[in-house]
Amino acid sequence: MGADDAFPVAASQAAAFTSFGVARLPRLVVGPGRIAELPGLVAAYGQRVLLVTGARSFRASAAWAPLVAALDEAGLGWDHVAVAGEPSPELVDGAVAARRDDPPDIVVGIGGGSALDAAKAIAGLLRSGTVALDHLEGVGRGLPYPGPATPFIAVPTTAGTGSEVTKNAVLSGRLPGATPGTPPFKKSFRDERLVAQVVVLDADLLAACPPAVIAGDGMDALTQLLESFTSTGASPFTDAIARTGLEAAAGALPAWHAATVAGAPPESSAAARAAMSWAACCSGIALANAGLGAVHGIVAALGAAFPVPHGIGCGMLLAATTRANVAALESRAPGSPALSRYADAGRILAGDRGLTDEHARDALLATLDAWTTALRMPRLADFGVRPRNLPELVAESRGSSMRTNPILLADEEIAGILAACH
Ligand SMILES: [Zn+2]
Q1: What is the mean pLDDT of residues 15-24?
Q2: Which residues, by Cβ under 5 Å, contact ligand 1, an ion?
Q3: CA of 312 to the centre of ligand 1 (A)
Q4: Which of 10, 168, 246, 349 is least surrounded, with the fewest CB atoms within 10 Å of its CB?
Q5: Ligand 1: centre distance to CA 23 (Å)
Q6: Would you state the pLDDT for residue 58?
């Protein structure tokens, strides 16, 4: 027996470890109450901090007063920008212009995806001497980002986008000369230097999330986990991250949502909140390294034409898209590794490790259907989408996310997904 035979390695396994990379990650500080460590984390980068928050919720929360008192006590100077709604290039440029002569040492973003994206973009532009539209993909001037980025700490107060660990800031706005009624663009300012230095994942900060935010952001995280897990860009690293994220989300998302709808005291869902906070963070790490799939491809087209919030769009489409992907793989690529990924995800989400692959995929689809209903996802028609809009949505859905879908979907298959969600 030769040495090669003594430890046989399956060909598929050997191939999986041949070539992949891991993008830069922030330092992660995880645990309830750890927002208290923020002054110490800030002080490592300087004495003056710019806080970027949402317009209301964090400043209205019990966490705001102790935080600013702790910054004062630590002798740190702070100043504040509030972000109402989705951040625009004008908001980012305005915040930067007001501080360019005397920029802060560090930017801390505390809030949902919009506040974190605004903070990330502001930190990127404070010292670069450029403006957001110089670098915004698709609609900008296409100039290379010169850096340097100001250090950035991300403190999410929702569980969803994964923006705390990604290198892109999504900004929305209207181009000069756009016809009235045209929905705003949503484009990314993207650079590895924009990745946060530190992320504080303190699930106590998520206690005030209303049910609609838990549902929309949670379905975004779930979609990002499932799409990166089945992506053609998946690697052993993203497999591990997506798997732990799916395990965390499995019981937590419906439980946290149901408890909040029922008005249960926030302490009762502390464990579910912490699990979803981790699941969302994993979804960001996984998508940044593996890419996404058809749900995000279609949602990009949908969000560009209709006022559909990103997470709600993902939640509306996830079950139908997964069903279409599984059917397409079974008929055209029965040997695809994505089919066993869907089965693995089914065993995790349905909580039954003993299921055969086929039954596990059925369990996945049944679980996604049940969560879509339990989390009260709307229908496309609720956002004004009409059957006559479908061909254009299909045509616009083939962006970068669609390219890592586990199988190339035909136009009719994408139209079928939209029709099933109408
Ligand atoms: Zn997403």
Answers
A1: 80
A2: 220
A3: 10
A4: 10
A5: 18
A6: 85
